[in-house]
Amino acid sequence: MNVMPENILYNELIGLRVSVVGSTDPSQLGISGTVVDETEKMLVVSTTGSARRVMIPKMISRFSFFIPDEVVVEGREIALTPEERLKRLQRRH
What we know:
Elements: E1 17-23, E2 32-38, E3 42-47, E4 53-57, E5 61-66, E6 70-74, H1 82-92
Antiparallel strand pairs: 1-2, 1-5, 2-3, 3-4, 5-6
């Protein structure tokens, strides 16, 4: 399944370009790069221009994914494992 704005919640996020556009933690704002790993509660982002990896809590953040158009997603909407998000999609159909 191709990642599109209408189905981003149910797709693999690893490999997508992302930017943190909202967070209750001001030190997280503006972090951008590529998603390299994902857990139920965190996105691991390899930041642009360095080999640094940053763990971003999903529940307190808002993310902008570029697929290639920009799609803004509330972190609480993706605060599940990728497998659980897929199960939700299957239950809806």
